[in-house]
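User: Please fill in residues for this 391-position structure.
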């Protein structure tokens, strides 16, 4: 869930339809007085029909939320406030765009003027620090485990994607007979032979050279499939014969192809946690992580380490035993060559949270925009018009 916060607005809005997609606004409740101001204006205690308004009452009629109408994905959201300010956002890219500014009525059109942040504005700011927790340790474990899985899949590609076994309808009831018993025993022998061949084929694939790897991986994949199919045949034939099922364990793969379960941090004593340094960068108005942020760490002994945040806005470093972090910088292409440098409270292991300025990180989609009324909708006056329907 992506959250938007409007600390300067004095009110907020909650609703899932606003983003017409995955983006869910999580704001404060609109105060009653401001909620009423978004309704139709009243003259001499008589409600005025906004569609007919062409006077200074028009601003009160237009204030509210509008959703951009698009064929696919979440459309942009426009919030015209009755104090003459506006907010506009869209989450159709990796980083959601968020713009603020002022609006006014000029020559019968709605004119939006975006507030463009100064080039000297800081893109990131240090939000808070936290001690290393079991949650952080589990994230580190999962991160390492994903690398283990990727390594196994690369070494044993024949074991990752197997076609489904061809199933047939089970018998309605057992039909025991000497012939059925013989067929069941033959099915078991065929499965045992297929299992042995699958294990041998898997070992040949693991030991293959670059020249023979593709062919031997395909042979191993086919052998594993046949063993799986033969195990199903055993179950079927023993059902028909009315005999108890023998155990048909899957083929034993080479050691390099076996995966152990991922450890659970809450079952590991804290004294044995590996810990590390985690930097989490999030969009200030949205709770989504900001990826591709270059993080540089400076340790107390002068060593430097760096890396980029992933798509979830996370950067991890194992840290250096006995050395503390004295300085962290964060840099993004939105402010290329102008990193944000902070000096946190020195720490050896822990978590640092950065907030990215939403008005900068998502880029400026437009500096000014004019819109015309079309019934209750607003239509942008652009080369490719965008229709905004009231929420």
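Assistant: Residues filled in for all 391 positions:
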């Amino acid at each position: 869930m992506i959250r938007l916060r409007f600390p300067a607005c004095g009110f907020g809005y909650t609703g899932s339809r606003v983003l017409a997609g995955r983006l869910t606004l999580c704001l404060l409740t609109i105060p009653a007085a401001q909620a009423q101001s978004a309704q139709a204006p009243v003259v001499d205690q008589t409600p005025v029909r906004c569609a007919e308004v062409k006077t200074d009452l028009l601003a009160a009629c237009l204030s509210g939320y509008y959703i951009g109408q698009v064929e696919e994905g979440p459309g942009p959201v426009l919030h015209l406030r009755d104090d003459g300010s506006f907010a506009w956002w869209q989450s159709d890219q990796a980083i959601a765009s968020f713009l603020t500014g002022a609006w006014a009525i000029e020559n019968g059109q709605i004119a939006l003027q975006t507030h463009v942040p100064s080039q000297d504005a800081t893109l990131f700011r240090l939000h808070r620090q936290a001690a290393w927790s079991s949650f952080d340790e589990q994230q580190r474990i999962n991160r390492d485990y994903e690398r283990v899985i990727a390594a196994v899949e690369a070494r044993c590609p024949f074991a990752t994607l197997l076609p489904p076994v061809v199933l047939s309808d089970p018998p309605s009831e057992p039909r025991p007979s000497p012939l059925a018993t013989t067929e069941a025993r033959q099915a078991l022998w065929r499965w045992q032979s297929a299992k042995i061949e699958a294990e041998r084929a898997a070992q040949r694939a693991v030991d293959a050279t670059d020249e023979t790897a593709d062919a031997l991986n395909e042979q191993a994949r086919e052998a594993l499939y046949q063993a799986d199919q033969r195990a199903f045949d055993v179950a079927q034939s023993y059902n028909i014969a009315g005999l108890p099922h023998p155990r048909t364990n899957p083929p034993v793969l080479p050691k390099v192809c076996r995966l152990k379960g991922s450890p659970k941090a809450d079952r590991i004593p804290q004294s044995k946690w590996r810990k590390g340094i985690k930097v989490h960068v999030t969009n200030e108005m949205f709770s989504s992580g900001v990826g591709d942020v270059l993080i540089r760490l400076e340790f107390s002994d002068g060593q430097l380490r760096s890396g980029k945040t992933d798509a979830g806005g996370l950067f991890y470093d194992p840290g250096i035993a006995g050395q503390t972090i004295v300085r962290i910088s964060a840099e993004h292409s939105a402010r290329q060559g102008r990193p944000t440098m902070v000096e946190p409270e020195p720490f050896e292991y822990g978590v640092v949270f950065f907030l990215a300025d939403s008005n900068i990180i998502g880029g400026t989609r437009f500096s000014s925009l004019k819109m015309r009324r079309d019934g209750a909708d607003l239509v942008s006056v652009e080369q490719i018009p965008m229709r905004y329907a009231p929420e």
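For context: Confidence is low (pLDDT under 50) at residues 1-39.
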